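TRAP-type C4-dicarboxylate transport system, substrate-binding protein
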Amino acid sequence: MTKTARFTLRVCAPLAAALLTSTAAYADNWRYAMEEGLTDPQGLYATKFKEEIEANSDHTVQIYPVGTLGESADAMEQAQAGLLQFIDQSPGFTGALIPEAEAFLVPYIQPTDPQVVRKFFKEGVAVNEMFHDIYREQGLELLSVFPEGEMVVTTMEEFRTPADLEGMKIRTMTSPLLLETYTAFGASPIAMPWGELIGGLKTKMVDGQENPAIWIEAYDLDNLTNVMTYTGHGQYTTAVMANAEFYDALSDADKELVQNASQVALDYILDVAVELDATGLAKIQESNPGYTINRLTEEERAPFKERAKAVEAAFVERAGERGAAILEQMKKDLAAAQQ
Ligand code: 6CS
């Protein structure tokens, strides 16, 4: 071996190996799946998160929008298996895996007034302190929880009472509490993943569904139904998580990077979220002036609230003491946010 070759092997090979190692350690590509498109609330959060990570490190974040990795449940399996590092999945789907997450679905517990919503999610003890360890049990590091707007029901026929809902087939997301909710409300609910809803409405397999106004407008659900009804019973909530094993293996600096990026994205989306309902409604009114939009009065809401008590009981039965404690805290957080 020549002197030059020996030098190359002795000095350059370890250097190249060190460089390769440091590249692997400091410039990873993190995969992030979500249930929505880039211009929807989850996409706005994810884009902000990606920008923060990429501006403050050599890492890159690859976002997989709705439809690219299968349905919500498929993406969750991939996140739990560590194939994805980050996932945005809403309690409307997570409830099947984590019963306590259904606290966000119990009717007439969540705020709907935009300013109250912001305070409830930003300062609420339940939202910010009580879910972390519960998600950990499923191998998930919970990073952010945020709202996407008041749940609104779209149907073919008007309804103002539980009796009016009789026989109406309402599509819900797959968390069991949503089926219990619409059964209690008098309807005939059918749980299905997002990918089947538009076809379900077109083929009349279902007569209606619930979602926030911003989503109804974005995916044309108003044009597939005749009436949109504000019942005041819920707020669409979503959550962003990391695979816990991946998160635990990060350096302290990278953990801080992820936490900071989550906080920046959360602060941003909480400001945007305050405007989502108004934006969604205004767009529907402009693009679909003939669409009937009903807002149930307090009097009309009363029988739905009465029936919601059975749903709350079903939640507590499944989510146990921890679930009951979360619900009680949410009620206190709501009262505090309303002041
Ligand atoms: O109804 C659904 O399934 C969807 N709704 C929203 C607001 N986001 C994603 C989710 O899949």
